[in-house]
From TrEMBL:
Transmembrane segments annotated in the record for this chain: none
PROSITE patterns: HMG_BOX_2
Any one annotated GO CC term: nucleus
InterPro entries xref list: HMG_box_dom, HMG_box_dom_sf, HMGB
Pfam families attached to this UniProt entry: HMG_box (PF00505), HMG_box_2 (PF09011)
The protein, known as: Transcription factor A, mitochondrial
Ranges annotated as DNA-binding: 1-66, 104-168
Domain HMG box: 1-66, 104-168
Molecular-function GO terms, alphabetical: DNA binding
Amino acid sequence: MRNGYIFFVKEQLTESRDLEPERPTRDLMRHIGTMWNNLSNSEKQRYKLMSEVKLKQWAMEYQAFLETQPDKEEYLRQLKELRGERRKHLKVYRAKKHRRLTQPPRKLSAYNIYVRDQLAGATQDEIQARFTDAAQSWKTLSDEEKAEYELEAKQIHDHEMEEYNNRIQAV
C-alpha cells in the first residue's frame, strides 16, 4: 500500500517533469527525496492523510470484492498459498543472489570453453545441431588441443577470482 512519501513523489515528479523535462529521473528522484526530508511533520501530515484515506478505500473495495467470491474461505486459502509460494521463491532468489555475491566463482571446464567457442555466433535454430557437433568433435581433439582450452579455463578462473577477491576486500 502507498505511504505518504509515495503520494508526495507522485505529485512532485509530475510537477518537476513539467518544469524540467530533460532532467534525468534519477536526479529528479534525489531532489524530491531531499525535498521530502526537508518538509516539516505538519507538511508531511497532508500526504500521510492521503495515504490513510487510500488505505481505507482499498480495504472497503477489498471487502466488497471478497463478498462477490462464491467460496470466500477457499479464495483466501488459495491467496495465502500463493503468497507462501511467492515468499519461498523470494527466499530462494535472495539466497542465490547472496551466494553469487559471497562465494567464489566456479571454475569452467575446458569442455565448457570449447563448447562456448563452438556455439559462438549460432542462431537459435543452429544451437542444437552445433552443440551435438561440438560434443562429438571434443572427443576427437588431441591432448595438446584440449590443454589449450584448459589453460584458457584457468586464466578465466584466475581473472574471476581476482575480481571476487577485490570485491570481498572492498566490503
